[in-house]
Design a protein that fits this description.
Length: 517
C-alpha cells in the first residue's frame, strides 16, 4: 500500500470516527421520541441552514451534477438554476409558515403528522398514505446515496463496490441509530462545511494548474467550445424547450421534501429562522455554481483522459473524485489534504442518507406504529421501534443500490419527482388556502405519487425499439406533470366536496395570527 493511500485512509478514518463520536454525544442528549425525530425544536440558525442544504444536495451535488455538465456541457446547468430558485422560495415563502402551523397543529413532529392534524383527520388516512409514499420514495433516495458511497470508495481505493457501499451504510446507520435528529443535524453542519471547502478549493487549484487554457483543451478533446459552453446547447444538439422546462422544474420539488421541511419545523425561533435563510441561500448559490464549474474544468483538467469514453477510465460522475486524485492524492505531501477533500464528497453522501433514514424511521414508528396501530405507546417504545426501522430501511436501500451500474442522477431524479409531486402542492395549499379540505388533500397525495410512478416506471409507449415509459418518450420530467396534476386535484376535489369544519377554519386563523407574531 502506497504512502498516499495510507494518508488518504487516515483522513477517511479520522472523519468517520468524528461522525460516530457525534452520534455517541447526541445519544446522551436524546431522551425520547421528540428529541430523536425533531431535536426538541432547538436548532440554531447556522446548524439548521447547513443541515437543510447538506441533506438536500447529497452526492448528487459533487458527483451527479458535475458528471452531467462534464458529459453534456453547460446546458445541464439549468438544473442548478431551478434548484437555486427552489431553495430561495422554500426558505423565504415556506419556512416560516410551516414552522408556525406545525406548532399550532398540536406540535406536529413529522410532515405526515402535520397533514393529519391540519385537516383533523380522525381516521388517519392522510397519515397512512403520506407515510407509505415517504417510505417508497425515500428508499430509492437513500439507495442513491449508498450508490454514491460505493462509487467513491471504489474509485479512490479500488475497493469492491459492494463492500464499499456496506462500509458507508454501516457508518451512517451507526450515528443515526444512536443520536437521531440531533446527531444528523450536527453531522450535517460539519459535512456542509466540508462540502463548501472542497467545492471552493479544488476548482481554484485546477484552474491555476491549467493556466486558464480552457478553450484550447476543449478543442483538443473534440468538443466544440461554442456548443459545450452554451446554456442553449445540450450535448450534441441545441437544447429543447422541454429540456429547459424539465431542468428548471427540479425547483418545484423543494416544498415537498420531508427531510428539508423538517428542519424548518425544528428551528428554535424567528430570529434563528431569518439567520438560517440567509446562510442557506448563500451556501446553495455558491455550491451549485462551483459544482457546474467543476464539471466544465474537469473536461480540460483531466485531458487526455475522457471519463466514460477512454478505456479503463471512471464514469463521468467521478469527475470531482478524479480531479482531487490528480491534484492531491498523487502527491504524498498533499495526500492527507486530498483525503479530507474526498471526505467532502463522502459528507455530501452521508448528510442526505442519514436524513432519509431518519424520515423513513419517523414515518413508520411515529406516524404508522404509534398514531395508527398503538396510540398508547410510550416514548421509549416509539424510540426503540424507530431505531429498528432505521436498520431495516438501510438494508432495503442497500438491496436497491446493489447494482454497481446504478445511476446516481436517475435514482435521485425519480425520488425527487415522487416526493415533490405528492407533497409539494399539498404543503403549499395547506399553508396558503383555507378552503383546502381532507378529500382534496388525499386526492393531491395519491394523484401526485401515482403520476410519477406511471410516468417513470410503467412502459406504456410502443416504439421501434420496444416498450418505453412516457417520461422516456416525451423527455418531460415527471415532476412537472405530477405537480400540476396534484395541484389541480387538490383544488377541484376541495371545491367539489364539503367545506372544512369550523374547527379547521378556526385553527387556520389561529395559525395566521401566530405566524405574524
Amino acid at each position: 500500500m502506497s504512502g498516499s493511500t495510507i494518508a488518504t485512509l487516515l483522513a477517511f478514518a479520522a472523519y468517520l470516527a468524528l461522525m460516530i463520536g457525534i452520534g455517541v454525544w447526541s445519544m446522551k442528549k436524546t431522551k425520547g421520541a421528540d428529541d430523536y425525530f425533531l431535536g426538541g425544536r432547538g436548532l440554531t440558525g447556522p446548524v439548521a441552514a447547513l443541515s437543510a442544504q447538506a441533506s438536500d444536495m447529497s452526492g448528487w451535488l459533487l458527483m451527479g451534477l458535475p458528471g452531467s455538465v462534464y458529459a453534456l456541457g453547460t446546458g445541464q446547468a439549468w438544473i442548478a438554476v431551478g434548484l437555486a430558485l427552489g431553495t430561495i422560495i422554500n426558505w423565504l415563502v415556506i419556512a416560516k409558515p410551516l414552522r408556525a402551523y406545525t406548532i399550532v397543529a398540536n406540535n406536529s413532529m413529522t410532515l405526515p403528522e402535520f397533514f393529519g392534524n391540519r385537516y383533523h383527520d380522525e381516521k388517519k388516512l392522510l397519515l397512512g398514505i403520506s407515510s407509505v409514499i415517504i417510505v417508497i420514495f425515500f428508499l430509492v433516495y437513500t439507495a442513491s446515496a449508498l450508490a454514491s458511497g460505493g462509487k467513491l470508495f471504489n474509485s479512490v481505493f479500488g475497493l469492491d463496490y459492494h463492500a464499499a457501499m456496506l462500509i458507508g451504510a454501516a457508518v451512517i446507520l451507526t450515528y443515526t441509530f444512536l443520536g437521531g435528529f440531533l446527531a444528523v443535524c450536527t453531522t450535517d453542519f460539519v459535512q456542509g462545511t466540508m462540502m463548501l471547502i472542497a467545492l471552493l478549493a479544488v476548482p481554484i487549484v485546477a484552474w491555476g494548474l491549467i493556466k486558464g487554457d480552457f478553450s484550447a483543451l476543449l478543442v483538443s478533446s473534440g468538443v466544440e467550445p461554442s456548443s459545450y459552453l452554451s446554456f442553449f446547447h445540450n450535448g450534441d444538439h441545441p437544447i429543447k424547450a422541454v429540456e429547459v422546462i424539465s431542468n428548471l422544474a427540479w425547483g418545484l420539488g423543494y416544498c415537498g421534501m420531508p427531510h428539508i421541511l423538517v428542519r424548518f419545523m425544528a428551528i428554535k425561533d424567528e430570529k434563528e429562522l431569518k439567520k438560517s435563510s440567509v446562510i442557506a441561500i448563500i451556501w446553495v448559490l455558491i455550491s451549485l455554481s462551483l459544482a457546474v464549474v467543476i464539471g466544465l474544468l474537469g473536461r480540460a483538467f483531466l485531458m487526455p483522459t475522457i471519463l466514460g469514453e477512454t478505456a479503463g477510465a471512471a464514469s463521468t460522475e467521478s469527475v470531482f473524485i478524479e480531479m482531487i486524485k490528480k491534484v492531491f492524492i498523487e502527491h504524498l505531501p498533499l495526500a492527507f489534504v486530498g483525503g479530507l477533500f474526498l471526505c467532502g464528497i463522502l459528507a455530501a453522501i452521508m448528510s442526505t442518507a442519514d436524513s432519509q433514514l431518519l424520515v423513513c424511521s419517523s414515518s413508520v414508528s411515529a406516524d404508522i406504529y404509534k398514531d395508527i396501530f398503538n396510540p398508547d405507546a410510550d416514548n421509549k417504545t416509539v424510540l426503540r421501534i424507530g431505531r429498528i426501522v432505521t436498520i431495516v430501511v438501510a438494508l432495503l436501500a442497500v438491496a436497491i443500490a446493489w447494482d454497481p451500474e446504478s445511476s446516481i442522477m436517475t435514482l435521485v431524479s425519480d425520488a425527487w419527482a415522487g416526493l415533490g409531486s405528492a407533497f409539494g402542492p399539498l404543503v403549499v395549499m395547506s399553508l396558503f388556502w383555507k378552503r383546502t379540505n381532507l378529500p382534496g388533500a388525499i386526492a393531491g397525495l395519491v394523484s401526485g405519487a401515482a403520476t410519477v410512478i406511471i410516468w417513470d416506471y410503467l412502459p406504456l409507449i410502443r416504439t421501434a425499439d420496444g416498450m418505453v415509459t412516457i417520461g422516456t418518450h416525451t423527455g418531460l420530467y415527471s415532476l412537472v406533470v405530477g405537480f400540476a396534476i396534484s395541484l389541480v386535484c387538490i383544488i377541484v376535489v376541495s371545491l367539489a366536496t364539503k367545506a372544512p369544519d369550523q374547527s379547521v377554519l378556526d385553527e387556520f386563523e389561529k395559525y395566521k395570527a401566530y405566524k405574524e407574531q
